Amino acid sequence: MKVKYFAWVRERVGKSEETVEPPANVRTVEDLIGWLSGRGETYAHAFETPRVIRAAIDHAHVRSDAAIAGAREIAFFPPMTGG
Amino acid sequence: MTANVTIRIQEPDFDIAREISALTEARTDIGAVVSFSGICRGSEGDEPIAALTLEHYPGMAEAEIARHAETAMSRWPLTGLTIIHRVGRIRPGENIVLVLTASQHRQAAFQAAEFLMDYLKANAPFWKREESAEGTSWVEARHHDDAAAARWTKS
After folding, report:
1. A17 vs chain B: nearest CA distance in angstroms?
2. Which of B17, B97, B138, B143 has its CA 20 to 30 Å from the CA of residue B122?
């Protein structure tokens, strides 16, 4: 699946998108955050406070307990500040 | 007549008068247009700001705004609406966002415009970065923006 990062999450991870193949036991958005955090210091820094991270699956907001099965694109970003 | 819905995300500035004309052109069923524009302030608290840079999530930003527009159309008897959000570098005094709502009567237009802005601020995937003498920093979300959006789900 494709993973995208925005704003300071993107800056901390050091890339705007990538394709990942998480293991089968990574079932939810929360699981994916945990798995990504274990991939290195940049990820650990980006996701150090999981409760502030917002997520979207295929362009729609989701909660951290949302299942990721079948997702084409998952995005992580900080709370929004548009308008 | 069908409702006239325009949603755009763009770098260039917009002309408010031209957008209002486009919304009302050739129609005689509109009695009220409400216009909200969000403008870049030159300071945040005591801190002068040189510019804002707006980042967005292409694809989702359009989808999220379209979802809010549909909700507004289903909740109020609108004849049309226009939402334009700029991205890229924006200097103090420049426009950031435009929301226009048109209806037969003013109440629906006022309420829908406020609803749309509250929802956009809390849910549309845009992020502001401020440039100041101190350097650049991401603008932090305000809790009252979430509260402003949440009050529309209570009624």
Report:
1. 12
2. B17
- Min CA distance, B101 vs chain A (Å)? 16
B7: β partners: B83
Residue A83 lies in a domain: no
Below-50 pLDDT ranges, chain B:
none
* CA angle (B86, B91, B94) in 5-degree steps: 60
pLDDT of residue B146: 80
Q: pLDDT tens across B95-121, in order?
A: 999 999 999 999 999 999 999 999 999
Architecture of domain B4-153: Alpha-Beta Complex (3.90)
B127 contact residues in A (CB cutoff 8 A): 6-7, 77-78, 80-82
Q: Which ipTM value was assigned to this complex? A: 0.95
* Residue among B96, B117, B122 whose CB faces A80 most closely: B122
Q: In the numeric block, which tokens belong to residue B42?
A: 């030159």
Whole-structure pTM value: 0.93
Instruction: For residue A11, give the chain B residue with the closest CA.
Output: B138
Q: Chain A within 8 Å of B85 (Cβ-Cβ)?
A: yes
Is residue A82 a part of any domain in this protein?
A: no
Chain A residues in contact with B149 by the CB 8 A cut-off are: none
Low-confidence ranges of chain A (pLDDT < 70): none
Nearest in space to B146 (alpha carbons), one of B123, B115, B129: B123
